[in-house]
Amino acid sequence: MVDQTEPVTIKRLAGSSSEDADDVVIREFPLTIILNNEELVTLLCSPAQMKELAVGYLFSEGLIGGKEDIKNMVLDEQRGVARIEAESDAEGERVFKRLITSGCGRGASFVSESDARAMAPVESTATIDSDAVFRLAKEFQNRSQVFRETGGVHSAALCDDGNIILFSEDIGRHNAIDKIFGSCLLEGIPTDDRIIITSGRISSEILLKVARRNIPMLISRSAPTNVAVRMGDRLGITIIGFVRGERMNIYSNDWRVRADGKRH
Amino acid sequence: MVDQTEPVTIKRLAGSSSEDADDVVIREFPLTIILNNEELVTLLCSPAQMKELAVGYLFSEGLIGGKEDIKNMVLDEQRGVARIEAESDAEGERVFKRLITSGCGRGASFVSESDARAMAPVESTATIDSDAVFRLAKEFQNRSQVFRETGGVHSAALCDDGNIILFSEDIGRHNAIDKIFGSCLLEGIPTDDRIIITSGRISSEILLKVARRNIPMLISRSAPTNVAVRMGDRLGITIIGFVRGERMNIYSNDWRVRADGKRH
């Protein structure tokens, strides 16, 4: 595996004193995805789980429907090229090519809220204890090794109501979630009734990514946008933001969170 | 001006007690840029300074060289459409169309480090006192009103060694900087020898955006990536990260920062 960090020599200032010091910074790596012999996109990413990233990206952008669509995949880790042959969705490709991208995303899967209205709501009756949310968020914080070293990455996790099942880190918040979904597809890990935790802001793009996997709960230490909240409402997704210590805000479908824990 | 936030009703949990509460979330707004009658991109942004965003975006992507290239611009704030007629750079357009985008950017201006090697280093002998860095970073933190309300935005500022000259906020860290550069172009504000402060991570894309404006110093509360540090080294840009309280790390061209302040 390619290193995810790189040593650097810095000058460290504290007040008026300064010293040369050894430090590490996060690596930024260009991964070019070639789909059916056509250059599709170059993602700047953290150089780990690059197969998972490529597959998750294709799924999130609507270019493949699942693992069964992938006929062949070759990853050249040194050159940063993932070559994929797939039964690609022609309509998905058309939409992908029409749209370039958005704020902090890349290759957005939609332009307007009306495009999202065609989506079916998430089917799940899953609920969770507020205590479990606090516990998962705490474990999530503790897991991020690269973040502690460099302060420069986002994390994402797939959980059930007691445990973190998959955990990924990347310089991009979209990439981190795509790596999770790539793992799910490649390893056949189900996502129904499960939970995504992200270190980043919950925008409409993140919300839709999660909705496509039929995931009913989305948790963040950070904030959601107004469009994400409206989509969460409509698509049956529970958005939990600002989970810090023993506090949280629930922005949509709060019926999934049971506050009457046994703890107090 | 369109509102930048939206009121929502949330359920707030603290420990095992819960209550309904009024809150505000950040708005996410799609701005479509139409360049010379062709749909170029839809940016998800905060709905303020949208003219500045459109112009700054075209500049950062290499599609225009300056204000003089803009023949006409009409902004429809309600529909979220900026229609621009410009003397567009044909080579810039070609490169733009070839590349889609990257990690947390949109429509990247380059793919590899070698593409950046063609850039001329920043020409500036500007230096700064470490005290001034601490003061600017503190003022920058204090300015972000929308962030304090919603926790969901990035900020960017253009400064000289004593004052913040321009300040912008947006849901995207790229957009916030593009708004600053759009203002500079539209209002004829010079950027030579000046400083950019950003709330976000310093990736290669952010570094190159700043280099294109011949800006010699880049400050962040957050971390740089390895590629940004290498480019900063080569392009004569001083990268200052993790500015917190009275501490900072200098990753490149540290000669611009004078630690022997008069204060202590």
Top keywords for this entry?
264 residues, alpha/beta, six-stranded mixed β-sheet, four-stranded mixed β-sheet, homodimer
Question: What order do the helices and strands come in, and which of them pair?
Answer:
Two copies of one chain form a homodimer.
Chain A: E1 5-14, E2 17-26, E3 29-35, E4 38-45, H1 50-60, E5 70-76, E6 81-86, H2 90-98, H3 113-117, E7 128-129, H4 130-143, H5 145-150, E8 154-159, E9 164-170, H6 173-187, E10 195-198, H7 204-212, E11 217-220, H8 226-235, E12 238-244, E13 247-252, E14 257-258
Parallel strand pairs in A: 3-6, 7-14, 10-11, 11-12
Antiparallel strand pairs in A: 1-2, 3-4, 5-6, 8-9, 8-10, 12-13
Helix pairs in contact in A: 1-6, 7-8
Task: Explain how this protein is built.
The structure is a homodimer of 264-residue chains. Chain A is of the alpha/beta class. The first copy, chain A, is 30% helix and 33% strand. Chain A has 8 helices and 14 strands. In chain A, strands 9-8-10-11-12-13 form a 6-stranded mixed beta sheet, with helices on both faces. In chain A, strands 4-3-6-5 form a 4-stranded mixed beta sheet, covered by helices on one side. Chain A has a two-stranded antiparallel ribbon with strand order 1-2. In chain A, α7 runs parallel beside α8 (226-235). Chain A starts with a strand and ends in a 6-residue tail after the last strand. Mean pLDDT of chain A is 88; it is low at 99-111.
